[in-house]
Q: What sequence folds into this?
């Protein structure tokens, strides 16, 4: 089953073996979005800060995950919002019994898979096209999160066409992808130096940056493979 779902600014693609798991994901997104909205109403600064943030011990889980990820990277908590919502949705699907599930929240992906699968990467106008990563089966949720300075509406200060981070902590992958993209300059040197921004952060497995005709890799990443990346399959508004 595959369904495109939108709730306000959250636009996701949900993939599961049964429609019941898709409904579980949609319910989880609604619940955690509402908790986040309520928290932002109580402290509007949370939504706009680009700096690390501290929250109280009784903050909702979505807020705690956002804060932990942003603080680990050294940037604001909302840098992790898409990946965090995706991870919480997949977590609810797993709790309901799913062993294979994907939530793609605008390129920030939470996944658990009991069979091999290929995740394609869209890098805008870059000449590097139709590549993806082969994910071997896993019994735990993983994050593949992508940020870009040339694709999409998110706040970004770098030149990356695609900055991709892999981590078992989906929220951390999302924040780190933002920081990696922010750090990406132009050309080979601009790509290679970008990894300095995240290479010392615990919990990150590996990363890939695409900028124009240049591509760099750091750490441990899934096997790169050819993939037919179709624009109409990309989760977008």
A:
């Amino acid at each position: 089953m595959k369904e495109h779902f939108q709730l306000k600014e959250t636009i996701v693609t949900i993939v599961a073996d049964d429609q019941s798991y898709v409904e579980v994901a949609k319910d989880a997104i609604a619940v955690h979005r509402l908790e986040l909205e309520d928290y932002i109403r109580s402290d509007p600064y949370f939504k706009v800060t680009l700096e690390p943030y501290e929250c109280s011990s009784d903050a909702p889980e979505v807020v705690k995950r956002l804060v932990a990820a942003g603080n680990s990277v050294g940037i604001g908590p909302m840098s992790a919002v898409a990946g965090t919502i995706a991870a919480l949705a997949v977590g609810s699907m797993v709790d309901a019994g799913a062993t294979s599930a994907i939530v793609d929240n605008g390129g920030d992906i939470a996944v658990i898979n009991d069979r091999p699968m290929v995740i394609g990467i869209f890098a805008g106008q870059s000449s590097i096209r139709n590549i993806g990563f082969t994910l071997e089966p896993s019994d735990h949720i993983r994050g593949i999160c992508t940020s870009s300075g040339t694709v999409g509406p998110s706040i970004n200060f770098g030149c990356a066409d695609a900055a991709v981070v892999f981590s078992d902590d989906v929220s951390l992958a999302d924040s780190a992808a933002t920081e990696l993209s922010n750090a990406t300059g132009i050309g080979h040197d601009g790509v290679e130096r970008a990894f300095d921004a995240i290479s010392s952060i615990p919990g990150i497995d590996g990363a890939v940056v695409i900028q124009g005709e240049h591509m760099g890799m750091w750490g441990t990443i899934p096997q790169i493979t050819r993939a037919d990346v179709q624009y109409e399959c990309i989760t977008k508004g």
Observations:
- The chain has one domain: 2-229.
